[in-house]
Amino acid sequence: MRTCRRKITSARARRAVVRGCVTLAAIALTGGLAPAVAAANGGATIAAAPELVLGQTVSSGWSNQPVNNEPGGEFWKVPLNGGDTVSIDISDASCGIGELVYAPGVTDGTLPGAKAVVSEGGSTFTFTAPSSGVWTVFLYSGCATTSYDYAATVTRTSGKSENGGASIAAAPELVLGQTVSSGWSNQPANNEPGGEFWKVPLDAGETLTLETSAASCGIGESVYAPGVTDGTLPGAKAVASTGGSLTFTAPSTGVWTVFIYSGCPTTSYDYVATVAGGGGASTSGGGVPTGKAAPTASMAVARQLVSVSAGGIASIGVACGGAPCSGTLELTVLVKRATGTGRRKKTTTTLVTIGSVSFSGLSVGPHRLAVKLNSTGLRLLKHDGYKLSATARATYSSGSIVRAASGTVSLKGKRPAPASKGSTPGLRPA
After folding, report:
1. Does an H or E element contain 12, and which?
2. What is the Cα–Cα distance from 172 to 136, expressed in whole angstroms?
3. DSSP 8-class letter at 348
4. What DSSP string runs through 390-424?
5. Are 254 and 202 a contacting pair, CB within 8 Å?
6. β-strand 160-161 against 180-184: which pairing, if any?
7. Residues 6+ away with beta carbon under 8 Å from 264
8. Which residues of 18-45 are buried (b: 16+ CB within 10 A; e: fewer)?
9. pLDDT of res. 375
10. Considering only Cβ atoms within 10 Å of each terminal Cβ, which end of the chain, N or C, has fewer?
C-alpha cells in the first residue's frame, strides 16, 4: 500500500493511482480475490456420491474417512453413454491418489463383492464407457486425511451406443451402416475373459464386413453357424475366426452369431458393420421368406446446428432406418447449481429436459421433428447468450425392444431487436 502514500506530481498519474487504491481497498474489504477453483466434496458412500463437476478445477478431499477398505477416499458419479470418455487430472494432492471405476448398478450393499472395471494410480485418468449408465468413480489414498484438486471433462461419442448380449439367447442384431460404440464390464463369456454376442441374418452368398476400432483392449471375432445355442456352444466350432477386420460370406441362409471378445474383462470398442451381395432371400415351400428376421427400426441423431424460431421451435434432424419409427424425442441440458457457501459450497450437475415431442410411423429416411422449448429451455437459451448446447435423445421401439439414439445439438436463438428510443418495451408502435 506504499504506492498510495507517494507524493504524485502528475495529474494523470494521480488519477491512475487513486483508481488503483480504490481497487485494492475493495479487494481488502471483500476478503481478497475470488478463488480460482470451486470447492466440492465427494460422498462417503455411493448413495451419497455427487456428480463429478466438469469443466473446472475443483478442490476436494476427506478427513479421517476410511472407505471401501482404504484408509481414506470418496465417491463421485458420472453419467455416460456408451463410447463417452471421462478424463480426470489430479493435482496438488497431499497424498498419492488412486482411482477405481465401478459399473452402473453397483451399490453400497454390493460394493464389498464388486470388482472395479478400471483401476489406476496416476495423476491422469481416462475411461471410455462400454455401455450407458451412471458410473461410480472412487478416489482414494493411503492417508486417512487427504486434500487434492481435480479437473474432469467428458468427451461425448458421435456414434450410436448399443451393446451385445452376454449370451446367444440375449444377442441383439448387429446395427448396420453406422458407427456403434459398444463393450462390456466384467463379462466373461465363451471361455474368454470378456466378450459379447451379436446376431446377423444373412442370405446365402451375402457378405458381412465388420470393422472394429478404438478398442481399449485387443479385439477378436468368431462366427457361429445358425442353430448354435448357449447349450451347444461349448462343443461348437466357429466357422470363421479372426483378430482384425472380419469378412464373412454366408454359405447358407440363416441367422448367424458373431462373438466379439478380448483378453480383458472390461472392454470398450467401436464397430461399423455392412452386409452386401447375395442372390436374394430363400423361401419356404409356401413362398414365405426364411432365415431373415423381420426388419426392425433403427434411428440416428447426428451432431447439428439448429436455429430456434421466435416461437421457441427447434427443428431437429433425425434418420429412420429399417422400418417405420415411433417414439419420443427429448432435448436435455446439463445444468450446474451451486449450494452452500465457503468451503461447504458445492456444485451439482442436473440433467434437465427442455423440450420433447412424440412421433409415430416415420418412414425410412431423414426427417425433421419440431420440438418446442419449455420455459426452462428458453431461459437457459437467453442466459447463455442465445447459444445452448443440448443432447437430442430419441427413444423408439425396435421390434419388441426399446432402443435409444442421441446426438449433440447446438441451439442458436435470435437476439431480440433493441427497443427503439422512446418506445415502451413490450408494446408495438401504432
Report:
1. helix 11-29
2. 27
3. E
4. EEEEEEEEETTEEEEEEEEEEEEPPPPPPPPTTPP
5. yes
6. parallel
7. 193, 194, 216, 217
8. eeeeeeeeeeeeeeeeeeeebbbbbbbe
9. 93
10. C
Radius of gyration of the chain from Cα atoms? 28
Residue 61 pLDDT > 50: yes
pLDDT band, residue 189 (cuts 50/70/90)? very high
Residue 160: enclosing H or E segment and its boundaries? strand 160-161
Predicted local distance difference test score (pLDDT) of residue 419: 57
Beta bridge partners of 219: 262
Mean pLDDT of 100-127: 90
For the four alpha carbons of 141, 146, 150 and 156, in that order, the dihedral sign comes to: positive
Q: What percent of the chain has pLDDT over 90?
A: 52
Which residue's entry shows cell 444377442? 171
Over residues 154-175, the pLDDT tens digits come to: 988 777 889 999 999 999 999 9
Higher pLDDT, residue 399 or 367: 367
Q: State the cell numbers at 4.
A: 498510495
Mean pLDDT, the chain, rounded, equals 82
Which of 135-139, 372-376, 423-427 is predicted with the least confidence, judged by mean pLDDT? 423-427
Question: Which of the 8 DSSP states describes residue 176?
Answer: B
How many helices and strands (H and E) does the chain possess?
2, 26
Q: CA distances (Å), 212 to each of 60, 129, 237, 250, 307, in order?
A: 39, 16, 23, 20, 35
Contacts of 239 by beta carbon, 8 Å cutoff, 6+ apart: 223, 224, 225, 248
CB 265 within 8 Å of CB 186: yes
Lookup: cell for 135: 458410473
